[in-house]
Amino acid sequence: MLNILIPVDGSEPSLLAVHHALHLVGAGLKARFVVANVQETANLYELVVAHDPGVLQKVSEEAGHDLIRPAVKLLQAAGQQVVQDVSTGDPAHMLVEVIERQGCDAVIMSARGAGLRAVVMGSVSQEMVQASPVPVTLVKAHPESTPRD
């Protein structure tokens, strides 16, 4: 059984990777899933105001779990095994660590997030193609579902 990492950032486009994974399961793929989110490191202002790094870490973890909740619910509703992984740091670097820590065999991720996340997820997906020790599948939005300006 494959162990597949699905990074999500909370955006609708990032859920496309979950839908693609479920499509593969429907076609017969036997897999378990690791749904991951990487939070940004606290900035200097946050560190000064919070006075307690533990509080910042807790808030960061809670935010990450909130962002992955929709993906986890979709997979669990389809009867799939899901592990949740939230970390803090550079997204591509941390995702490679998740691959190694969780023993992932492959990655399925969105090619882009939404809005500002589009820039971040787009660059993360490109970094993952280069840095990942396992195969990476990038899922693009269908042209008809992409908002037009």
Can you tell me about this structure?
The protein is of the alpha/beta class and 149 residues long. The chain has a five-stranded parallel sheet, with helices on both faces. Helix 5 links the parallel strand 4 and strand 5. The chain is globular, with a radius of gyration of 15 Å. About 5% of the residues have low confidence.
Please specify the SSE layout and strand pairing:
Blueprint: E1 2-7, H1 12-26, E2 31-39, H2 44-50, H3 53-77, E3 82-88, H4 91-102, E4 106-110, H5 116-131, E5 136-139
Parallel strand pairs: 1-2, 1-4, 2-3, 4-5
Helix pairs in contact: 1-3, 4-5
Summarize this structure as a short list of keywords or feature phrases.
149 residues; alpha/beta; 5-stranded parallel sheet; 5 strands; 50% helix; 21% strand; globular
Number of DSSP helical runs: 5
* Helix/strand order: EHEHHEHEHE
Strand order of the largest sheet: 3-2-1-4-5
The radius of gyration is 15 Å
N-to-C CA distance:
42 Å
Largest sheet: 5 strands, parallel
Low-confidence stretches: 114-121
Structural class: alpha/beta
Helix proportion:
40-55%
Global morphology? globular
What does the average pLDDT come to?
85
What share of residues are in beta strands?
Answer: 15-25%
Strands, count: 5
